Amino acid sequence: MKFAAGVTLYNPTQEQLSRISDLQSSFDMIFLFDNSEPDYIKPEYPEGEKIVLLSEGFNKGLPFAFNSIISRCDDYDFLCTLDQDSSFLHGDIVSICNYIEKSVNIDDTGIVAPFIDYGYNVQKVDSIVEQKRWVITSGAFVNLHIVKKERLKYDDNYFIDKFEIDLCWQLTTKGYKILMYHPSVLHQQLGEKKGKSRSSHNDLRHYYLFRNRFYFNNKWYKGPKKWFLNVAQTTRHLLMVIRYEDEPLKKLNSFAEATKDYLAGRMGKKDYFFK
User: Fold this and answer.
1) For strand 78-83 and strand 3-9, is the pairing parallel, antiparallel, or unpaired?
2) Which of 43, 50, 60, 88 can pair with 64 through a Cys bridge, CB separation 3.0 to 4.6 Å?
3) In this predicted structure, what is the pLDDT of residue 51?
4) Stretch (H or E) spanning 187
5) If you average pLDDT over each of 15-19, 189-193, 199-203, which comes out highest?
């Protein structure tokens, strides 16, 4: 089997790029999609026979970036989707690749993902492999044969947040499995750490979380369940912002902005901050 990595970049640091360069020993090819802002002074990007750099010259969003990478992966069996904050060590990558090659039925498994360690208490599990409803983007090995056979793609409407869950839903509704392989661990930072078990996000990120939740629920659920999820999940989100976030009023305003844009059908990139 041949394994490629797809990494999205957004105004990366030299340290992040150096870590990405180290991935060359772990994959057959690395596709970098640069979503950096046009005026960003770019550090020195990694070069090598295994590295392909892609860009549209401005931020097109994560779904667009990964769809573009997949369109160039005709010669590969699995694509490992990563972002510049991911820390995925060579031994963990080799472990999950070996598991895929030896134990995974590639005809019925859409994604195989590692266990994600966010730097909090890591819960021990009894099973080596666990079937999941969805997994996050970072470290997910996407079965390119199934994605292309079924003509699936990441939904560009999300821009960021929930687009990977949407792809998992596309796969599971067609009967394909999503697996988490626990012996392989990816270390990931989620937002800005706040205490031992919580993270914090800026107002723009909360905007996408609010807006994309409405879009996802209305896309995948019907009737009373759709409305219940919208109300219950949004209420919990609002309470978490009030209780734990800095500048809660500013971030609560993102809820109003997200609701207004969703109802008006404004999806994709948010081009301005809140007034």
Assistant:
1) parallel
2) 60
3) 95
4) strand 177-187
5) 15-19
Which amino acid would we find at residue 89?
A: L
Domain ranges, residue 91: 3-190
CATH at 80 = 3.90.550.10
Tokens of 128: 């080596």
pLDDT confidence of residue 275: 47
**Angle subtended at Cα 8 by Cα 110 and Cα 108, rounded to the nearest 5 degrees:** 5
Q: What are the Cα distances from residue 66, in Å, to 103, 185, 190, 235?
A: 26, 22, 20, 31
Q: How far is CA 181 from CA 140, 178, 258, in A?
A: 10, 10, 35
- Same domain (yes/no): 204, 149: no
Same domain, 171 and 46: yes
CA-CA distance, 234 to 211, in Å (whole number)?
10
Q: Are the CB atoms for 182 and 125 separated by under 8 Å? A: yes
pLDDT band at 29 (very low <50, low <70, confident <90, very high): very high
Beta strands in 87-147 (DSSP E): 109-117, 129-131, 140-143
Q: What's the predicted TM-score (pTM) here?
A: 0.91
Residue 268 domain flag: no
Asked whether the beta carbons of 179 and 109 are under 8 A apart, the reply is: yes
Give phi and psi for 80, each to the nearest 5. -90, 115
The type of residue at 217 is: N
Rg for the chain (alpha carbons), in Å? 19
| CB distance 161 to 136 below 8 Å | no
C-alpha 197 chain-centroid distance: 20
